[in-house]
# Entry
Amino acid sequence: MERKRTGRGEALARRARLARPPSKTTSDHAIYRMAIHADHAIYRMTIHADHAIYRMTIHADHAIYRMISTPITPSTG
# Structure
């Protein structure tokens, strides 16, 4: 039965499956695992940064919209 793919980290998982861990020494395997982990960390940071930038843009648009839509009333002092 085929597992449903979500799309998150799919390329990373495919790369991990294609690149077989070296069987020479345990240190090579540790380096391989560190590289995969670093790639995943960079991928997650990129996704997070994109979302933060998106949220900042939405927030800025909303602030500009509120400034435009707020009527300027003369102050009666």
